[in-house]
Amino acid sequence: MWEQGGGYFGVPFTNYVGWLFTAYVLFQLFALFLRFRRTDSKEEASAFPKSYYAQAIIMFAVVGLAYVVVYLSGSGDTLVTDAMGVVWHTRSIAEAEATVSIFTMIFVAALSTVKLLQRSAAVTFTSVETGSGKTAARESSPALK
To answer: Is the full-model pTM beyond 0.85?
Structure first.
């Protein structure tokens, strides 16, 4: 138990920041591993336009931010009692919702945005057979498809 706990079952916010940093470091190490392990195989281009994926990202971000806005707006703190007779502070419930949404929906939306922007910035080179039977390099972007 923490001396100065937080709103999510007494767990302080700094605990979640520490776990986020730990996961980030592990994922970065894994990304470095994948970068140096890569072969010359080409990635498949996406069959859907960039806006198709952006819709899901925007919805995740909006829903996740709604909980944070409710918590930051500082709506009153009332007491509620559940069916088991446990008394809860609505402010603590709002803090728990905001904390969970930051580390789930907002985090996923941010990572997906970065990935989508990386994908649209990448320019791939594909070979195209010309009418004379020769092969020519063609520059194309997945964002234009």
So the answer is: no
Of 101, 108, 98, residue with least CA distance to 6:
98
25-59 pLDDT, tens per residue?
A: 999 999 888 888 766 555 555 567 888 889 999 99
CA 25 to chain centre: 16
Do strands 124-129 and 87-89 pair parallel, antiparallel, or not at all (unpaired)? unpaired
- Where do we find the tokens 């904390």? 99
Across the chain, the runs of DSSP E, i.e. the strands, are 79-81, 87-89, 124-129, 135-140
Residue 133, Ramachandran bin (φ over 0: left; ψ between -120 and 50: alpha; else beta): left
CB 58 within 8 A of CB 110: no
Q: Kindly list the domain boundaries of the chain, sorted by start residue.
A: 1-35, 52-145
CB 33 within 8 A of CB 70: no
